[in-house]
Amino acid sequence: MKSEQVVHRFKEKGYKITPQRRAIINALLLAKQPATAGELLQELRDLFPDISLDTVYRNLKLLTDLGLLNQINVKSGETSRFEFSDCPHHHHLVCMQCGASRCLDYCAMEKGGLAAAEEHGFEVVGHVFEIYGYCPGCRGAN
Ligand SMILES: [Zn+2]
Ligand SMILES: [Zn+2]
Ligand SMILES: [Zn+2]
């Protein structure tokens, strides 16, 4: 996903692109791993000393609602991580201790789960599936 595509989608939906909004998009594009609102806030503070966690979080939620981001760790609100949704469909491991997440290049639902849904006469349009546990770093510390 390119910054201009995201900006285009915002404008299409009638939203204004503020400098803060553009900076949030760029910070997330540069992130190597899915990022939390708090991590993005730290990067943006140099540029925007007044920016609040709430502003970052609300913009991430808006991008998610527009279909531009995937939300990871959906269970825990403010520690949710976000990544752009133009990557191939995949799932995540979520560490319950440090909140780290890893992308898995694998869909556990494709065969079993989705077939079962169809057996119930259900037309499937999407699904969310996350694996919770402890990452190697946190396991070592315990
Ligand atoms: Zn961990
Ligand atoms: Zn991912
Ligand atoms: Zn899947």
Give an account of the 3D structure.
With 142 residues, the protein is of the alpha+beta class. It folds into 2 domains: 1-86, Arc Repressor Mutant, subunit A (Orthogonal Bundle), CATH 1.10.10; 88-142, Dna Ligase, domain 1 (2-Layer Sandwich). It is built from 6 helices and 6 strands; from the N terminus they run ααβααββββαβα. The chain has helices at residues 3-12, 19-30, 37-44, 53-65, 112-119, 136-141; strands at 35-36, 69-72, 81-84, 91-95, 101-104, 130-133. A 3-stranded antiparallel β-sheet has the order 1-3-2. Strands 5-4-6 form a 3-stranded mixed β-sheet, with no helix packed on it. A hairpin with an 8-residue loop joins β2 and β3. α2 packs across α3 and α3 (37-44) packs across α4. It is globular. The model has no long low-confidence stretch (mean pLDDT 88). Bound molecules: zinc ion (3 copies).
Record the SSE blueprint.
Elements: H1 3-12, H2 19-30, E1 35-36, H3 37-44, H4 53-65, E2 69-72, E3 81-84, E4 91-95, E5 101-104, H5 112-119, E6 130-133, H6 136-141
Parallel strand pairs: 4-6
Antiparallel strand pairs: 1-3, 2-3, 4-5
Helix pairs in contact: 2-3, 3-4
The protein binds zinc ion (ZN) (3 copies).
Structure summary:
This protein is of the alpha+beta class. The protein has two domains: 1-86, Winged helix-like DNA-binding domain superfamily/Winged helix DNA-binding domain (Arc Repressor Mutant, subunit A, Orthogonal Bundle); 88-142, 2-Layer Sandwich (Dna Ligase, domain 1), CATH 3.30.1490.190.
